[in-house]
Here is the input.
Amino acid sequence: AFNDGRKVVLGHNATYLILQNKDFTRAGTIEVEGNGSTIITNPSVRQSRLFLFSTTVDLVKIKDLNVDGKNFLGVAFYIQTNFDFNNIRIKNIYDDVSAALAFRVDVGKQFTTSNFTNCYVDNVNAPIGGSIGDASGACRAIMVNWNYTDEPTQIRIKGGKYSNVFGNDGDIFQLAQANNNHTHNCKTIVDDVILENWSRRAIKGTS
Here is the structure.
């Protein structure tokens, strides 16, 4: 279904074991109805992302899905295209070599408006000590890298709870201006969320 454009409907409250990282590159919309199911994995994907949605995908829509990293998954979602995430719950993200990220978003030219709605992240940890400015020990619930800002774009984070982001450099959200363009009409909007327990900053802005 992922490959032919059909909506993927998971079983109600089922558990799915994924044994390797999954990269999605096909054009069109990828839509998943999670129905409260939980994705788990094993140490073979540690220090790697579980899911990558590349720039060639038009839109990713996922609803009512849980991911349990079991304290060996380093990155749950690596997103390079437009997305609409509703009630995604991620817990137990851990990396003892590099950065631990529940969601990584790299904003490129194809982005318009993307949404995290009523999502939840709990327990993100990267205990290794690194140097200032490197990836080691960085922990984020959501990291947004603004690589392209020439067109109006919004990343919206509305509702939900993001908690227990620890490690050497634990920030719940990081908003990184990566292209050194500081005059534009692009926004990250954070609205009505609960932020709870972090080791460094609730929201970090870098440029």
